[in-house]
Amino acid sequence: MDKIALIVGASGIVGSNLANELLTTGWTVYGLARRPRTDVPSLHPVAADLLDPAALETALADVNPTHVFITTWMRQENEVENIRVNSALVRNVLTALSPKHTVQHVALVTGLKHYLGPFEAYAKGGTLPPTPFREELPRLDIDNFYYAQEDEVYAAAERDGFTWSIHRPHTIIGKAVGNMMNMGTTLAVYASICKETGRPFQWPGSEAQWNGLSDVTDARIIAKQLAWAATTEAAHNQAFNIVNGDYFRWSWLWGRLADWFGVEARSFDGTVHPLEEEIAGDAELWRDMAARHQLVESDLNKLASAWHTDLDLGRPLEVMTDMSKSRKLGFLEYQPTEDSFFDLFAQLRTDRLIP
Q: Domain PRISE-like Rossmann-fold, which positions (predicted)?
């Protein structure tokens, strides 16, 4: 039977990698975004505002997906607004598709804030679940737009009879431009600035993150899990963590990232050095670098999301994730974290996004 995917947020880190994964394995793929990509062969672009139900209905009139993958969100000023807006975008898409009766499975990508709480909460510390995080941990007693998005999926599944899966990555490493949460590219830009100026590649985060165990999620491995869960009956109606499968300490990895760029690594020195402050005055420098090195993106803010990298690396605790649940069901993919970063850096250089 034909597998027809609708990827909501197809131009983002997860969505673009998922499109590549599905297209190479025989799926028909529609990519929905406000400004969808038109440069991917065989990907059918669908342009619509996710918060405009009428526009969505029109845009999806001739799209009859069997599988829907929701891989996007919209950052708002506070969690109340995050809940209102991000639950609406899930609800609007599934409501527009409901009369078609073609949807068999819906996958939703959220993240480890399911366990940590929203940005404004976990950044301030407090009582958090023990690591490694496991899917059976109960929801925190706090407002969280991830919970609201899940509830929209559950309600639509009850109404329309499709199966679902929830996917909870840690920090995602992969290529995207204009993405709100992009640690890999942010660190590549910072290292490139350090190389250009002779600055040290200073660890920006907390002592707990420097010394503690951590993990990340390669965009390619979450794409594989999304495809696996959509087509594996035992994985239906389940929530899954998704990380590379290895643990590391930033105190081990930081020097390796610095070596790739040929810059001096500086370790944790007792003080947090937020990246948002470190590169705050570098917009003009980056424009000059883009001109001299013939880079394709001269806007520093479209490449670097320092605010999000600071939140991840500034956490007051180690953060790591248990993958036992999907492993037991047969998802055995593994990705070395060093290679996640190095592959990304090489791609960014090839695509002339960094010098």
A: 60-355
